Amino acid sequence: MVKFSSLALFSLLPAALAAPGQLFERLGAPSELDKRAGTFFSNWHEGSGNFQCNNGGGGSYTTNWSGQGGFVCGKGYSPGGRRTVTYKGTYNPKGPGYLALYGWTRSPLIEYYVIDSYDVLAPGEPWTKKGNFTFEEGSYDLYTSTRVNKPSIEGTRTFQQYWSVRTEKRVGGQITTGKHFDAWSSVGLNLGYHDYMILATEGFTNGAQASSGNSNITVD
């Protein structure tokens, strides 16, 4: 989506918003980056729609969005890694988008999502299902996809995306990241050294279908 601490992450080439997992392509303006109460905040939007994201106190943020284009906003950690992420709040989407734990690793370069809720799933590249797993936090289907010669935290590269998609949607609870990392590893999807990780609200335009909604999320 260069590492947050460089404050240069969002100085890459702009492009039209088409699908999820393309944050490095969706750069109409610099992102707002901040640290508050040990959490990492990112706010980006592009297009002709109305995209509002407000950085609240501690681990909180709110969003309200509608129209053509897209946005990604969230709070989390830099670096990410094995931790239990606890969050709560409200999420009311219509159209393409996700409420997800989102992050990157290096060596290998991987973009990953743990999707807890959504209205319309609309992956940018074909997903290949790799299995599913269930543990005390819920059941998830596992997928992978490949981005070819696309912008990333290491410039234009070809890299894989890993996905855990919750089978019963929820808003709030615990995401034990190590459980997902281990589940991916068990089907041959290995991660590298962790870069940033955020609990993100994302909305985007997919073809003629725009996204709208609102969220109020707090990451503990």
UniProtKB/TrEMBL annotation:
InterPro entries: ConA-like_dom_sf, GH11/12, GH11_AS_1, GH11_dom, Glyco_hydro_11. It catalyses: Endohydrolysis of (1->4)-beta-D-xylosidic linkages in xylans. The active site is at residues 111, 202. The keyword DNA-binding does not apply. GO terms for molecular function: carbohydrate binding; endo-1,4-beta-xylanase activity. Its EC number is 3.2.1.8. Pfam families: Glyco_hydro_11. Pathway: Glycan degradation; xylan degradation. GO terms for biological process: xylan catabolic process. Coiled coil: none annotated. It comes from the Eukaryota. Belongs to the glycosyl hydrolase 11 (cellulase G) family. This is Endo-1,4-beta-xylanase. It comes from Ephemerocybe angulata.
